[in-house]
Every structure is written in structure tokens, then in C-alpha cells.
Specification:
Chain A is an alpha/beta fold. Chain A has helices spanning 11-22, 64-69, 130-140, 153-164, 185-197, 243-247, 292-306, 371-382, 389-393, and strands at 4-7, 29-32, 72-75, 80-84, 89-92, 97-99, 102-105, 109-111, 124-126, 145-149, 168-172, 201-203, 208-212, 219-222, 225-228, 231-234, 238-240, 256-258, 269-271, 276-279, 286-287, 318-323, 326-332, 339-343, 352-358, 361-368. Chain A is 23% helix and 28% strand. In chain A, helix 1 (11-22) runs parallel beside helix 7. Chain B is of the alpha+beta class. Chain B has two helices and five strands. Classes of the chains: A alpha/beta, B alpha+beta. Chains A and B meet through helix 2, helix 7, strand 22 and helix 8 of A and helix 1 and helix 2 of B. Bound molecules: flavin-adenine dinucleotide (FAD) and FE2/S2 (inorganic) cluster (FES). Residues 25, 38-49, 84, 86 of chain B line the site of FE2/S2 (inorganic) cluster.
Chain lengths: 404, 106
């Protein structure tokens, strides 16, 4: 029988391999990835790895021996160019056709690129891969100024690390508030003052017009003025890697459309991780999530489906971001909330939580240095609990007593 | 290298030499200890690297910080002797430490 082939060797793929082994999958598995590295964790790229606190091998999801032991034919530095669905094979750059019995697309996402004057200049970077971070870090030593285009969590984590490293950092964000896609306005406002207090120059509502410089970038030009930049990093969101799927005629809508078992509209092809779009069990709405939780969960779900096992219990989506000494932990999906309850004072200190409710039901929480609220809410949201908003706001009520 | 002994959920005992300076979680994952999921990779955000510490070792480990304490408070299967293995750094003083992996991290 031809092998199960996985395209893309990232976090979702590594989890799939682990879960297949656990679920007793006995057929051959081939894992094809275009990066030169074993599947690795991206979160540290804009955190400890960027800060130089972690060596590369500590990013690996699993050691090389794990893939050997699992009997996986692991081919790194190998890009799949095309899927031949009638022939049930994937085609590599050199024309080699590799037949599959089952195919899993785990191609992830890539940074959205800016097409502005000067955006191809040396010194303008994106941040997605080990190679990107190594290049950025290589410039830290002799750079004094960094302009970050985009005030999402990746850009802000970078801003925090670079500031600690002694660079003068400017963040240019197009919309009126930071991390607007991920958190509510109270949390955005907190992060704005946090970064300002750490010495970051912050422009919201900024309109970036282009990059200046002869061979190397020297400034970022925005509507509000020219911002000197020995280095510029663009973090303006990601696009799902759907081209293989689209060219093969699979259903794609800003993400490869998959069912609850992560199967595409071709029963022999699954898709997992950042590249997928799936109706979410919590909201009933189609959603594309870019998170470690989603990559791992879809890896587990697809493995169970492939092995004919019952699906694992789904977790409420969660996410985190580390900036300075502040840990942001988010759980749930806040879209459609009609009430936001703040616990603690975002204006003083670095610790508070915001609870989002819809018709009295808790649907999401943003917790800033508030692990208890985060952990309890994971359970409350899964239980579709309806906690008393007055208690949520009242710090005299212990977290464990917030259940009702 | 420091020897740490894990009891996996099915009772299998594994004595492993782990690299000093890294977390116990990292060493466990590297050696494929069954039942340490470590979904967040050590960011103290998932509580899926939880272990039970042998009674005689409990007081000998460095104390929990506030975020580990908080994560554990609401962690499923938590016991008095629970710790997050990503928050404990391997060092020679831990030679012979015994840990038990819970039946499930969910
Ligand atoms: C800087 C940064 C920080 C982050 N921080 C956090 C965080 O704090 N918390 C959190 O939850 N999430 C975070 N994320 C998001 C998280 O890392 C992603 O959601 C996760 O990596 C998705 O896993 P994946 O396997 O779907 O994709 P990826 O890990 O991107 O893996 C996909 C792989 O497939 C390869 N590939 C694509 N096309 C082909 C092809 N045709 N042939 C061969 N190979 C191919 C890609 O090159 C890539 O290596 C962060 C991401 C970044 C970039
Ligand atoms: S690995 Fe996530 S809390 Fe330890």
C-alpha cells in the first residue's frame, strides 16, 4: 500500500505523527517539508529564541529519533509542487511522483507581504521562520532603530525583545488599536501604555507609504512622518498556504475547507493547522485559526479519523503571548459578545482579566498575568457556564467561587 | 546530566539522564516519556506537562512561582504533589528525583 503522505513539516504535522503512533496506525508514513529543519515550535521565534535564550534544537517539537522510531520517511528541504488527484500522487519539484493512500495537507500559513515602494529593500524582514529570525537577529548588533509595521502580537513581542536589547523601537499600526483581531479594546489600551512605558514609540491609525534607503532600508515613510529605521520588520497578518489544494480543485475559502474530522471534500485528503477553515464546534461558524492549540488539536482529530477511532474531546481554543514580564492568555472566541466585564484594574499594575459574555453565557476571556482566571475559564466556557457578572467584577470573590 | 526517574501511566518505569539547565519537560519530551503532552512548549500556559512528585522529594524541589501555582490550581487531576515539569530546571541536586505521570493531561 502506498504511504500516508503529509505535506508540510510543522507543528500540526509533528502532532499528527505522534497521534497516529498512539492511535496504532501501522501503515507507512512519509513526511515532506520544505524547510531544512525538523518540525519546530514557532511561538519562541518572536520570544525567547529571538532574545537568544534558546538554541535551535530546543525548538524542535520532537527529536530526530522520534521520527525514526515511528518509522517515518522524513524528507526535509523537499517541496511539493502539485497534487495529482486522479493518480493519487504528489509531485515534487524534480518531477518525482510519490503515490499516497491518504494525503494530509499541513502547509501552514505565510506572512502577508506589503507591496509598497521600497518593500524589497535589504533590511526589510518578515517573521515566520527560523531563517527569518536568524537574519533579524544578525542585524540587531549594529542596528540602533527598528520600525515594526503592524501592531499584532508578533510585532509587539518583537518590539518588546528589541527594546530590551537596547534598540529604539517604533510600532506603526494601521487601525486605531493594538492586537485588534485578538483582544478587546480594554486589553489593547493596556498594551499601548505598557509599550509606551517601556520606551516604544507607538503610532496607531498609521498609514505606511513605503520604505526609504539606497541599498538598505534607512527609514519607513508613513503619513505622519518619516521614521528612521536601520531595520524594519513587517507583521501584518498571515495568509493560509492553500495553493496546492486550490490547484487540485479542493474546496478553498480563505483556508482549505474541512469537516469536523479535518477531511477535505476529497475523502482521501485531510488538512490540518493554519491552512484550514472549519466550522467551529463552539460557534457553528466557519473559522480559520492560527494557533498552536488548533494545530495540535486538528493533528489529533485527523489521526483519530484516519485510524477509525472516536474523536478526542475538543478543547476551547486558547492562545498566549509574552511581552516583557506580561503574560497574556486568551481562551474562547469573543466574537459576538454583548458584555465585557473587567476584573482588576488595567490602569494600575500589570494584572487583570476581561470576561466576554453573550446573553449571559461566558464565551471568552483575555487574562493579563491572571493564570487562575484563564484556567478556570477554560472549564467554564466548555461547560457553557453563566457566571454572575457582578461576581466576576468583584475581586473580593475568590476565582474558584466564580462558577455561578 | 542528571538521572530522573519517570513512572509512565501504564506503570513502566524509566530512568533517564536529562540535560542540566533545561526543563524536566524538555528532557521528558526528548526521551518520549508517555503522557507529557506539553502543548505550549513550556510557556506555562497549558498545564499538560503535569507530574506527581514522590513524597520524599516534594520539599526538596524549588518552590512554585505564582503562575505555576495558579495554573495548577485549576488543572484536571491535580493533587497536593503536582508540579508543572516545564517549570523545573534539571540540575545535579535533582539526581534520583522520582516523578509519576498522570493517566491523562486533559
Ligand atoms: C513568530 C510567531 C509566533 C507565534 N506565537 C504563537 C503563540 O504564542 N501561541 C500560539 O498559539 N501560536 C503562535 N504562533 C502561531 C503558531 O506557531 C502556528 O499556528 C502553528 O505553527 C501552525 O502550525 P502548522 O503546522 O499549521 O503550520 P507551520 O508550523 O507553519 O508548518 C507548515 C510547514 O509546511 C511547509 N510547507 C508549506 N507548503 C509546503 C509545500 N508545498 N511543500 C512542503 N512543505 C510545505 C512550511 O514551510 C512550514 O514549514 C506563532 C507564529 C509565529 C510565526
Ligand atoms: S508545557 Fe505548557 S505548562 Fe508546561
Amino acid at each position: 500500500m502506498p504511504p500516508l503522505i503529509i505535506v508540510g513539516a510543522g507543528q500540526a504535522a509533528a502532532q499528527l505523527v505522534a497521534s497516529l503512533a498512539q492511535d496504532g496506525y501501522s501503515g507507512p508514513v512519509t513526511l515532506l517539508g520544505d524547510e531544512p529543519h525538523l518540525p519546530y515550535q514557532r511561538p519562541p521565534l518572536s520570544k525567547k529564541y529571538l532574545a537568544g535564550e534558546l538554541a535551535l534544537d530546543r525548538l524542535y517539537v520532537k527529536p530526530a529519533a522520534f521520527y525514526e522510531k515511528a518509522g517515518v520517511d522524513l524528507r526535509l528541504g523537499t517541496r511539493v509542487e502539485r497534487i495529482d488527484r486522479p493518480g493519487k500522487a504528489v509531485i515534487l519539484a524534480d518531477g518525482t511522483a510519490l503515490p499516497y493512500s491518504t494525503l494530509v495537507l499541513a502547509t501552514g500559513s505565510r506572512p502577508r507581504r506589503l507591496a509598497l515602494p521600497g518593500s524589497e529593500l535589504d533590511g526589510v524582514f518578515y517573521l515566520r521562520t527560523v531563517a527569518d529570525v536568524d537574519a533579524i537577529r544578525g542585524r540587531f548588533a549594529d542596528a540602533r532603530s527598528l520600525v515594526v509595521v503592524g501592531g499584532g502580537y508578533i510585532g509587539l513581542e518583537l518590539a518588546a525583545v528589541a527594546t530590551k536589547h537596547g534598540l529604539q523601537v517604533t510600532v506603526l499600526e494601521q487601525v486605531p488599536r493594538l492586537m485588534a483581531r485578538g483582544v478587546g479594546p480594554v486589553v489593547s489600551a493596556f498594551y499601548e501604555s505598557l509599550h509606551r512605558s517601556e520606551g516604544v514609540r507607538l503610532v496607531t491609525g498609521a498609514k505606511v507609504l513605503g520604505f526609504e534607503g539606497k541599498d538598505r532600508v534607512t527609514a519607513v515613510v508613513a503619513e505622519d512622518g518619516v521614521h528612521p529605521a536601520d531595520l524594519a520588520v513587517v507583521g501584518v497578518g498571515a495568509l493560509p498556504n492553500v495553493e496546492l489544494a486550490a490547484a487540485a480543485g479542493l474546496k478553498v475559502e480563505n483556508g482549505i475547507v474541512v469537516d469536523a474530522e479535518c477531511r477535505t471534500d476529497d475523502p482521501a485528503i485531510y488538512a490540518i493547522g493554519d491552512c484550514t477553515k472549519q466550522v467551529h464546534a463552539l460557534t457553528g461558524q466557519p473559522l480559520r485559526l492560527e494557533s498552536v492549540h488548533n494545530a495540535l488539536e486538528q493533528g489529533r482529530v485527523a489521526a483519530a479519523a484516519i485510524c477509525g477511532r472516536p474523536p478526542p474531546t475538543l478543547q476551547v481554543p486558547w492562545f498566549w503571548s509574552d511581552q516583557y514580564d506580561v503574560k497574556l492568555q486568551m481562551v474562547g472566541l469573543s466574537q459576538g459578545h454583548d458584555q465585557a466585564v473587567v476584573r482588576g484594574d488595567p490602569g494600575s499594575g500589570r494584572s487583570f482579566a476581561v470576561f466576554y459574555l453573550r446573553e449571559g453565557q461566558l464565551i471568552a476571556v483575555d487574562a493579563v498575568n491572571r493564570a487562575p482566571e484563564f484556567m478556570l475559564s477554560k472549564q467554564l466556557i466548555a461547560d457553557r457556564a453563566r457566571p454572575d457578572p457582578a461576581k466576576l467584577a468583584d475581586e473580593r470573590v475568590a476565582v474558584k467561587d466564580l462558577r455561578s | 546530566m542528571t538521572k530522573i526517574v519517570f513512572e509512565e501511566p501504564d506503570g513502566t518505569e524509566r530512568a533517564l539522564d536529562l540535560t542540566d539547565g533545561q526543563s524536566i519537560m524538555e528532557g521528558a519530551v526528548r526521551n518520549g516519556v508517555v503522557g507529557i503532552d506539553a502543548d505550549c512548549g513550556g510557556a506555562c500556559s497549558c498545564a499538560t506537562c503535569m507530574v506527581y512528585v514522590a513524597e520524599d522529594w516534594r520539599v526538596r524541589l524549588p518552590a512554585k512561582d505564582s503562575s505555576e501555582t495558579a495554573m495548577l490550581e485549576f488543572c484536571p487531576h491535580v493533587q497536593e504533589n503536582s508540579r508543572l515539569s516545564c517549570q523545573i530546571t534539571v540540575k545535579p541536586e535533582l539526581e534520583g528525583l522520582r516523578l509519576k505521570v498522570p493517566p491523562s493531561q486533559q
